[in-house]
Amino acid sequence: MRKIGSLESGQQANLFRDYLLTKGIDVTVESASDQWTVWVYDEDHVEQSKSELDEFLENSSAEKYQGVSQQADSIREEKIKKVRENQSRQVDVRETWNRPFTSRCPVTSLLIGISVVVFLFMQSDESKTQVRQALSICSFQVSGDMIRYDKRLVDVREGEVWRLVTPIFIHFSIMHIVFNCIMTYQLGGAIEANRGSGRLLLLVLLTAIPSNLAQFYWSGPSFGGLSGVVYGMFGYMWMKSKFDPQSYFFVPPNMVFILIGWFFLCMTGFVGPVANMAHGFGLGTGMAIGVATTFLKQAGKSR
């Protein structure tokens, strides 16, 4: 901190301090006998501040000094707001990690828990068909190798709107559910801890519905799994980590490589029948939400 000069009154000192603040220069003033001393915090601003002080001493009633106090008050309010936002983001790590995951991330836990319960029910021949009929995007009939269904989604139109989401809980193999649950735990847990349960739930719905609809109109109702939502969460976090540094999201390069590599590998057909349209629409929707929310946030700040 460097002293750059003195002023004769506190009113002048405060006006000059406010003016410098509008220029992005932080100073403090101290009273000493009949003078007010101006101190600059940043060494890089010392010379500019001295020059500004000389101009101020020559004509403190100049037009450029009019209204600066109101501008300075707005700047201080914005700084206070940012400090409060940062404080609200701070979490007592000991308290957080001493709580069970189900308490910290209830939506993520619910997604995994429902998927596991549904998978266990589907291991029984007696309930497998009933579970699939209840959770698939529409009811269907199997006749030999043929699946008959109505593309108009009559069940949904008649009020069973949950069918637009519930296919995410259907998994067909142990590897299918294990992979999806691990990725949901990692991605969903990170988003829920950072953004809260409400926003994660909204993101799940906004990615599940278009990915399920896309897969249905591409291949029919014989699909399921959390992978569309997983790719949606990945796309959201990926874009946030690239375009919004203040989001505190970080997606390791190896995760990007694995998920994008798996995405294209599934499209080749080497790993068997996969809901590729659900993957694609989930990824695209998640990326779009990540980019849109970032630029809307930035646009709001620039006003």
Automatic annotation (TrEMBL):
MF (Gene Ontology): serine-type endopeptidase activity
InterPro entries the UniProt entry points to: GlpG_N_sf, Peptidase_S54_GlpG_N, Peptidase_S54_rhomboid_dom, Rhomboid-like_sf, Rhomboid_protease_S54
Compartments, record wording: Membrane
Keyword Cell cycle (UniProt): no
Keywords for the protein's UniProt record, in alphabetical order: Hydrolase, Membrane, Protease, Transmembrane, Transmembrane helix
Biological processes per GO annotation: proteolysis
Domain Peptidase S54 rhomboid: 159-292
Cellular component GO terms held in the UniProt record: membrane
Stored Pfam families: Rhomboid, Rhomboid_N
Family, per entry: Belongs to the peptidase S54 family.
Entry's transmembrane regions: 104-122, 168-188, 200-217, 223-239, 251-271, 277-296
Lineage: Bacteria, Pseudomonadati, Planctomycetota, Planctomycetia, Planctomycetales
Residues covered by the Peptidase S54 GlpG peptidase N-terminal domain: 1-77
Protein name, per record: Rhomboid protease GlpG
Enzyme Commission number(s) from the entry: 3.4.21.105
Membrane topology reported for the UniProt record: Multi-pass membrane protein
